[in-house]
Design goal:
CATH topology of chain B: Rossmann fold
Strand content of chain B: 15-25%
Order of helices and strands of chain A: HHHHHHHHHHH
Largest sheet of chain B: 6 strands, mixed
Largest sheet of chain A: none
Radius of gyration of chain B: 19 Å
Structural class of chain A: mainly alpha
Oligomer: heterodimer
Number of domains of chain A: 1
Number of strands of chain B: 9
Distance between the termini of chain B: 49 Å
CATH class of chain B: Alpha Beta
Helix content of chain A: over 70%
Number of domains of chain B: 1
Number of helices of chain A: 11
Structural class of chain B: alpha/beta
Helix content of chain B: 40-55%
Amino acid sequence: MSAIYILWLRELKRYTRSRAQIIASLGQPMLYLLVLGFGLNPVFKRAGYGSYFQFIAPGVIGMSVLFSSIFSGLGLLWDRQFGFLKETLVAPVPRIQIMIGRTLGGCTVAVIQGLLVLTICLISGFRPASWVAIPVAVGFMVLIAMLFAALGVIFGSSLQDMQGFQLIMNFLVLPIYFLSGAMFPLTNQGKILGFITALDPLSYGIDGMRSVLLSAATFRPAFGIGIDLSVLIGVGTILLILGAWRFSKIEA
Amino acid sequence: MIRVQNLVKTFGSFTAVDDVSFQVEAGEIFAFLGPNGAGKTTTIKMLTTLLHPTSGSIQLDGLDPKTHQNQVRQRFGIVFQDPSLDGDLTAWENMEIHGVLYHVQHKIRRQRSEELLKLFELWDRRDDQVKKFSGGMKRRLEIARGFLHTPKILFLDEPTLGLDPQSRNQLWSHVKRVNETENVTVMLTTHYMDEADRVAHRVGIIDHGKLVKQGTPAEIKNQTETASLEDAFLKLTGSTIRDESAGSADQMRQFAKMWQQQRR
């Protein structure tokens, strides 16, 4: 247990120490939130969907949790490069504990990141349907973070070097984001796009967050909270098991 | 303490370690010498559970690393050839993580960390992030960390690479001391033949994945009719320079350097 704790703590310390990185990582969500959120607001309203700013805020929170958690898993690549990975791999600790410690650390960081973006949303005028909804939304953030941290571990254990990083960014992370309905409503979509978005686990996370944060009058859920929760938990568990298995196979 | 029989490791069609057998007795200091790319590090990686052998058997303290991975890991300490510290953490935090991962009790951990950091003259800088350290300081910290959990077997893979003569002497006298007082078995690799001659009880010379000679430094010098271990080494392994193909880890390191320079 102490191994899990110390590796969790390590992720947290690394995060809090890189202040420049924290600020930098808030830049992108703020662009989406403030520029797109206010920029597309009039068009969205005219189409009868209500406030676009209200609509996009949970999507932007989901985005920052997605990026932060998936990169924490891919952080394995950095640890491999700077050698720290080997130090943990030869330690007399079951690999599963090392994987759990890292993943929990990555999740915690991702959720903190999500909370920071939520704070920015609230400051810039986002209002949840009720304040009680916030803790439930945080629960969704945790589920999103777990799922994608595990996905990051799977890729981080399988890749040998940074060359694959751009590939993952462009063919995995960005599609997951754009196809999740973070920026557009998933209801009334065409068959093909509707099918693809339903395959994206992040769709369920953001749909869940919107269902709790937005009032029923302005937002119609695409799947419903029950389905959202089952998909996130189910897929998350599968990916965690796969991640643990891939991690146990690493040779340095 | 270490028993290796007919060890083979192949990567695709390339045979990195070819039918190597040797034994290291408890309390012995064994130097594993060989030119670049001879298979030293690959052998050490197999001994330390980082790589699975293609065939052959390994026993550390009577245990097979394949079946008793964690018991084996508890028994050895290793100083890697390339850095394995977390640069964002302080020297003290790096020691702490190591101590926790190796189940060293809290009180003993603090006491030993303090002793070791003082011994390797890093105590004043214990709260500085490791990335601010010089190459030599990082090396000393890795060595201090390797001693933290009082291993039965210590693997040192080119530990003196990049150290000044002062630190080298300090390191070897400490290795000798723990070898004598705590009866730690040591297996080391180095390119400095005079160090191997001075420190090691027995020497094994590996070339192209094959173990070509084993014995005490005196025996090897006698058998090859040379005056120094360096001459013996050159006589046994020839004087052509070896090309070592860059592994993916080296490529990544290069990539990281490029990237860091761009950021500056």
